[in-house]
Write a structure and sequence with these properties.
Blueprint: E1 8-12, H1 33-45, H2 49-62, H3 67-75, H4 83-92, E2 97-106, H5 107-116, E3 126-134, E4 138-142, H6 158-168, E5 178-183, H7 189-192, E6 200-203, H8 208-214, E7 225-226, H9 232-241
Parallel strand pairs: 1-2, 1-5, 2-3, 5-6, 6-7
Antiparallel strand pairs: 3-4
Length: 243
């Protein structure tokens, strides 16, 4: 395949990247005070985010919080500035892009987001913790996969999931002329180490990934180009340059 015609893969984080807020946090004020304080103590020592969030949903159920209230809060989270325009551009050039979302949230929240913003067809593939409605625990959540990466949360390694995406499509990373990845958190770093010289990493300015790269000096370990961003317009600008 001619390199000029190879597709570009755009991979995005969800919370605090596409969205202005962390979807797992926008409903915590619905917990009673005792539940919240107990869960906060557990969160500080948890190394498995999916397991922690399962406890959150159990407490929300005990506090008689309906699933509809969770959905209402999650759907109200605005997109970060420029992402609507980025999505519209990607739709207009859809033959040039493959797209992927890898999120530490859950599949239910992603499905709500995709439907609300009419981007179901734009993002046919996404990886996140598996979530389903459940009468006993409000939302039953399980990690999508298991891994042995010692650098990541026990419930998810984004580099492992990225490699799974490639293998499940019977391709390797060289199938793409460029891979672009945008994120904000330290959990986005592991995937970044897999990117090539022609690929691009977009760390959100002022957030943990950006700090890890430029305050702690971890940018030296990456091969890819690094484009810090404040809004989706920066990502859109770099995408347009590739076409």
């Amino acid at each position: 395949m001619n390199s000029l015609r190879r597709k570009i893969l755009i991979t995005l984080d969800f919370d605090l990247t596409i969205l202005t807020k962390n979807s797992d946090y926008v409903f915590l004020d619905l917990l009673n005070k005792k539940s919240f304080e107990l869960l906060e103590e557990k969160r500080k020592v948890s190394k498995n985010w999916a397991n922690h969030m399962q406890q959150v949903y159990i407490h929300l159920k005990a506090d008689n919080v309906p699933l509809s209230k969770i959905k209402e809060r999650v759907e109200k989270i605005p997109l970060n500035k420029g992402f609507l325009e980025l999505f519209e551009f990607m739709k207009s050039k859809k033959e040039r892009f493959d797209t992927l979302i890898i999120s530490g949230a859950n599949t239910m929240f992603l499905q709500w987001f995709l439907a609300k913003h009419n981007v179901v067809n734009l993002f046919p593939k996404y990886y996140s913790n598996i979530a389903i409605p459940d009468e006993e625990v409000l939302i039953r959540i399980n990690p999508f996969h298991q891994h042995d990466c010692t650098n990541c949360d026990l419930s998810q390694c984004k580099k492992v999931l990225f490699k799974l995406y490639l293998s499940s499509n019977n391709i390797d990373i060289n199938h793409y002329s460029n891979v672009l990845y945008a994120g904000d958190g330290e959990n986005d770093y592991c995937l970044s180490t897999f990117l090539r010289e022609n690929d691009m990493l977009f760390p959100r300015i002022g957030f943990p990934l950006h700090e890890k790269l430029f305050t702690k000096g971890e940018h030296k370990n990456l091969k890819c180009k690094i484009h810090p961003w404040n809004d989706g317009f920066k990502i859109l600008e770099e995408v347009q340059k590739l076409l």
